[in-house]
């Protein structure tokens, strides 16, 4: 489907001023569209009315450039000549971006807006159109069709998860909202599931270290979730869908013009799943029951000037539980019926302000308050975390140099009732960073960066960064990035396995911060072939080396999870390929494959990292039948074998997972004005991780280990009642435990 933009120009001259009276009209398939046209030369945004028209008096004739954003968040650039001799113009804008667009504006690679094709760090961009091809209630699940990015489920009972990038576990992935590091520490476990897709304008993903700009936690890469701009959001938006398992998700959006200089975006999301299901007959819920609500407000001020101010708030509450099928709240914290019950309260404030100076100086700030009240069986975990963050940076261009100089400060107050936190931990980390991007000539660019952080325990930490970019005359782009990173570990906020099950947590030493060195090579090429075929290929190869790595040891003692700095090194290396294709704007394909090797070497012995696949693939294939306004989306992924955490040498469960695939199909009808109707089937193959396994949860019939006998060392004994010498363990899981289901939904946008 295409958005056809007709500019019909009626021009009158005045002999002195030579003004041009301009009248434009924006339509979609012949219907008028209310949108905004931004004209760069006059730095003005012109809204269209209900009939699709906008008007402007140009002071002079000449060449002008405009940006127009459609309802799916895709921006396209235009240029045209304003003159009396050229009264009519036709511009065609793709309604749906097929894949990452080279002309997309990105900020995550360098903290400043640049064209994706010109960024020295490779940045992948995904819009709501991509996520709608497999609708999900939150961003955690939505990332399952991004190549090299894996939402990893870590617990059979409460379904906690984290996001892996290129095989690195969730704590190595830095998650930002509008550039603010507000999803970290405690919120990495449950905070990701509370970010609704309805708020998202786009998601930028950087694979590889970004510590020189963003500090600790950005070792493996970052995910920047950019929320919608109130100026471009739909005035009214509703998206409701449900599944045959009983899940209901509702998104509401409202965008208002408060005044000429103030715009407001309000969003609300409600998700509910209250239907206990036990398909694998182990007496436990297959997926966690959830009751979740989130409210979002965003204000932008003075959008017609070059100086901006934006402020956003979000409140999130979730009540979730999983456990034995007969569990209810009367059993919370007891030892009669096992359940894992988590209450989460979270508040976020974030903002951006461009200071009113001649120089471009930007300030950003955020504050988060996270309160978690959890019971894992009879084990309470009560935790609070407050994070305040502020940074200022100066963006200055001088000749061929593009400088960025900034300072940041992060304050964190964390407290919980675990053995690792005897007193509340209060941390203040001041930082300073600088980078210089230098364009050598039309073909070569280079970027150098350095960040300095001071931590009260680990003292001075320096992280450098170096990047090269080459673009051939035929449009082939090569990028080489290298840098170092560091990560300070919060065990109980990152390792959920330390709380669930019967394993004892053992910390052998004072943990030092992890350090890493990374190199990444990226290739990007776009071909415009005959017969309306566009093809884009992006390939990457990477290597990351870790020292002082902290990897939970499940192998030394089956009754313990041991934490210590690795006496050796860990590494990840691999290659990936993304191919995007569009044929005649009807057939669209996004295909990706990743091959990787993630492991550790200690005392000369190499071991594959737990829950990390050696290869994976993703795909999304879409075809639109224009004559009936119907689009079919076929999406899926495939994952290779992973090493899994067994409880004992006699544990009968598979030590390595089998190769598996999750596949979905969706049908979307767009024949009604303002409405879309969609539906389909998720997990067509009905695959779940209990396939080929005798059970998933060890000793699900005795979750409090009341009938387990132990030897003098605390090791479970083999008995007639316990033939494998097991203890209760719900951490053996590597994929969603939810089988085939249908879904149906309706979207309204005005």
Automatic annotation (TrEMBL):
<keyword id="KW-0812">Transmembrane</keyword>
<keyword id="KW-1134">Transmembrane beta strand</keyword>
<dbReference type="InterPro" id="IPR012910">
    <property type="entry name" value="Plug_dom"/>
</dbReference>
<feature type="domain" description="TonB-dependent receptor-like beta-barrel">
    <location>
        <begin position="269"/>
        <end position="684"/>
    </location>
</feature>
<dbReference type="InterPro" id="IPR036942">
    <property type="entry name" value="Beta-barrel_TonB_sf"/>
</dbReference>
<keyword id="KW-0998">Cell outer membrane</keyword>
<protein>
    <submittedName>
        <fullName>TonB-dependent receptor</fullName>
    </submittedName>
</protein>
<feature type="signal peptide">
    <location>
        <begin position="1"/>
        <end position="18"/>
    </location>
</feature>
<keyword id="KW-0813">Transport</keyword>
<dbReference type="InterPro" id="IPR000531">
    <property type="entry name" value="Beta-barrel_TonB"/>
</dbReference>
<keyword id="KW-0798">TonB box</keyword>
<dbReference type="InterPro" id="IPR039426">
    <property type="entry name" value="TonB-dep_rcpt-like"/>
</dbReference>
<keyword id="KW-0675">Receptor</keyword>
<keyword id="KW-0472">Membrane</keyword>
<dbReference type="Pfam" id="PF00593">
    <property type="entry name" value="TonB_dep_Rec_b-barrel"/>
</dbReference>
<dbReference type="InterPro" id="IPR037066">
    <property type="entry name" value="Plug_dom_sf"/>
</dbReference>
<feature type="domain" description="TonB-dependent receptor plug">
    <location>
        <begin position="118"/>
        <end position="221"/>
    </location>
</feature>
<keyword id="KW-0732">Signal</keyword>
<dbReference type="Pfam" id="PF07715">
    <property type="entry name" value="Plug"/>
</dbReference>
<comment type="similarity">
    <text>Belongs to the TonB-dependent receptor family.</text>
</comment>
């Amino acid at each position: 489907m295409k958005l056809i933009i007709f500019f019909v120009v009626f021009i009158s001259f005045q002999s002195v001023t030579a003004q041009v009276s301009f009248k434009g009209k924006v339509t979609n398939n012949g219907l008028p569209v209310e949108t905004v046209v931004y004209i760069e030369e006059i730095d003005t945004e012109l809204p269209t009315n209900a009939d699709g028209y906008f008007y402007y008096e140009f002071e002079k004739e000449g060449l002008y450039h405009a940006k127009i954003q459609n309802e799916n968040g895709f921006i396209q650039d235009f240029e045209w000549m304003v003159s009396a001799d050229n009264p009519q113009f036709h511009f065609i804008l793709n309604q749906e971006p097929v894949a990452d667009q080279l002309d997309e504006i990105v900020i995550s690679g360098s903290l400043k807006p640049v064209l994706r094709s010109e960024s020295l760090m490779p940045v992948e961009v995904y819009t709501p159109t991509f996520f709608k091809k497999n609708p999900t209630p939150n961003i955690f699940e939505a990332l399952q069709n991004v190549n090299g990015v894996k939402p990893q489920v870590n617990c059979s009972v409460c379904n906690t998860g984290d996001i892996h990038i290129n095989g690195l576990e969730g704590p190595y992935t830095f998650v930002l909202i509008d550039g603010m590091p507000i999803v970290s520490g405690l919120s990495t476990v449950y905070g990701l599931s509370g970010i609704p897709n309805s708020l998202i304008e786009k998601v930028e993903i950087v694979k590889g270290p970004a510590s020189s700009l963003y500090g600790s936690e950005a070792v493996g890469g970052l995910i920047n979730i950019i929320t919608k701009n109130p100026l471009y959001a739909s005035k009214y938006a509703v998206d409701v869908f449900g599944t045959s398992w009983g899940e209901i998700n509702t998104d509401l959006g409202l965008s208002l013009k408060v005044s000429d200089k103030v715009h407001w975006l309000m969003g609300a999301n409600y998700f509910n799943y209250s239907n206990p299901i036990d398909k694998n007959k182990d007496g436990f819920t297959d997926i966690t029951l959830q009751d979740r609500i989130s409210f979002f407000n965003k204000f932008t001020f003075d959008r017609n000037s070059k100086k901006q101010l934006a402020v956003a708030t979000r409140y999130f509450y979730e009540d979730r539980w999983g456990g034995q099928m007969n569990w209810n709240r009367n059993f919370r914290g007891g030892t009669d019926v096992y359940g894992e019950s988590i209450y989460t309260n979270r508040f976020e404030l974030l903002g951006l302000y461009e200071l009113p100076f001649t120089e471009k100086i930007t300030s950003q700030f955020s504050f988060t308050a996270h309160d978690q009240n959890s019971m894992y069986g009879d084990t309470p975990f009560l935790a609070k975390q407050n994070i305040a963050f502020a940074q200022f940076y100066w963006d200055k261009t001088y000749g061929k140099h593009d400088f960025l100089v900034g300072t940041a400060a992060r304050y964190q107050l964390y407290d919980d009732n675990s053995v690792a936190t005897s007193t509340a931990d209060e941390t203040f980390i001041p930082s300073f960073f600088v980078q210089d991007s230098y364009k050598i000539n039309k073909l070569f660019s280079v970027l150098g960066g350095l960040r300095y952080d001071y931590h009260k325990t680990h003292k001075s930490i320096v992280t450098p960064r170096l990047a090269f970019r080459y673009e051939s005359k035929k449009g082939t782009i090569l990028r080489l990035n290298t840098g170092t990173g560091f990560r300070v570990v919060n065990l109980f906020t990152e390792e959920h396995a330390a709380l669930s099950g019967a394993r004892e947590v053992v910390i052998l030493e004072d943990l030092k911060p992890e350090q890493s060195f990374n190199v990444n090579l990226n290739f990007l090429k776009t071909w415009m072939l005959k017969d309306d075929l566009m093809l884009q290929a992006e390939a990457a190869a990477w290597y990351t080396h870790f020292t002082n790595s902290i990897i939970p040891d499940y192998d030394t003692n089956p009754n313990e999870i041991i934490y210590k700095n690795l006496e050796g090194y860990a590494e990840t290396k691999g290659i990936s390929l993304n191919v995007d294709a569009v044929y005649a704007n009807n057939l669209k394909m996004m295909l990706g494959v990743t091959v990787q090797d993630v492991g550790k070497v200690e005392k000369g012995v190499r071991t594959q990292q737990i829950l990390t696949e050696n290869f994976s693939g993703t795909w999304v294939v879409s075809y639109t039948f224009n004559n009936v306004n119907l689009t079919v989306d076929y999406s899926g992924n495939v994952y290779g074998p992973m090493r899994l955490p067994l409880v004992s040498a006699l544990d009968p469960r598979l030590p390595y997972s089998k190769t598996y695939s999750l596949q979905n199909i969706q049908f979307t009808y767009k024949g009604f004005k303002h409405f879309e109707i969609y539906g389909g089937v998720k997990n067509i193959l009905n695959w779940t991780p209990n396939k080929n396994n005798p059970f998933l949860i060890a000793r699900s019939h005795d979750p409090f280990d009341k009938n387990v006998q132990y030897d003098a060392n605390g090791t479970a004994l083999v008995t007639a009642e316990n033939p494998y010498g097991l203890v209760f363990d719900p951490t053996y899981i590597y994929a969603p435990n939810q089988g085939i289901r249908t879904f149906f939904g309706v979207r309204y946008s005005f």
